[in-house]
Write a structure and sequence with these properties.
Pfam families: RraA-like (PF03737). This is 4-carboxy-4-hydroxy-2-oxoadipate aldolase/oxaloacetate decarboxylase. It comes from Modicisalibacter luteus. The protein is an alpha/beta fold. It has 2 domains: about 160 residues, 3-Layer(bba) Sandwich (Glucose Oxidase, domain 1); about 35 residues, no CATH class. About 35% of the residues lie in helices and about 20% in strands. Strand 11 and strand 12 form a beta hairpin. The termini are far apart.
Length: about 210
Amino acid sequence: MPTQEQLATLKSFGTATIHEAQGQVGAMSSCIKPLEPARRLIGRALTVDCYPADNLMIHYAITQAQPGDVLVIDAKGFTEGGPWGDILTLAAQKAGIHGLVIDGMVRDAETIIEFGFPVFSKGLSIKATNKAQPGRVNVPVICGGVAVKPGDIVVGDRDGVVVVDPERISEVIDASRAREDKEESIRQQLEQGKTTVELLNLAPVLQRLGVR
């Protein structure tokens, strides 16, 4: 189980940095976007596999949550209904849930933003959904094109969402820190007059392509 210190450190890195640092894996589809771009997210995945246009299993999942969990919902990419809104947001906050990532839509956006609850979704739909269909909680799911297991670490920011295997968290933190250090060195050299072509050794590639 990752420590709170590890989670805080991982959260301090951008999702793009984490994605690159762990070998360009774990990035959800770019269609999964933050409801409020300034809001950041990190937590353990509490996964939900639910029927399109039905949120029964989402209500149930909240009763199974532990403080610090992030709901990761495979809503099958359904875009003509919002299975998450202000009531579920309040219920999730009371349960200590740190945020939501859903391959589907949400509604009541202004209230959710006022609550300060991080939400990452495909977009908004004012249409209601049902509460009648079966589903599963705490099972492997596909969300935003990425396989997510219960307990995986989910990180979200303005750029998107990335999933980290908790067994790799120390390795990913070290690689993310090294990547940030490398990029800071590049910035300093750019300030000194170097070009990205020089710093990234792109001249041989340009020469091979006949670019002059």
